Amino acid sequence: MARHRHDCEEENDAPQPRGFKARVLAALLAGMLIGVLAGTLAMLLLAPRSGKKTRSRLQRQGHELGDQTAESIEDVLAQARDITH
Fold first, then answer.
1. Residues 57 and 49: beta-carbon distance below 8 Å
2. Which strand (E) or helix (H) includes residue 64?
3. Is the dihedral of CA 31, 36, 39, 44 positive or negative?
4. pLDDT, tens only, 56-69
5. Hey, what long-range contacts does 27-31 have (CB within 8 A, 24 or more apart)?
6. Residue 75: which residues within 8 A CB-CB, separation 6 or more?
7. CA 82 to CA 27: how far, in whole Å?
8. Which of 20, 18, 39 is nearest to 28 (CA)?
């Protein structure tokens, strides 16, 4: 059994293609963004508020989401630069 574990470890230690981690980080960011958007849409559709309050809330959350997305993209780009250098 120890030999099997050793074989698996060797497979996991195989070199990854160049840019692999950056693509994984980008996919993770995209998945998180899609999840946030889906959650926001569900919240807005199910929230019992007036149209004016809903629009105001949507505008505020849209700005917050934009800021968070920009920060996340900057973080991913910085990590990708660190990985490639």
1. yes
2. helix 51-84
3. negative
4. 888 898 889 888 88
5. 29/72, 29/73, 29/76
6. none
7. 17
8. 20
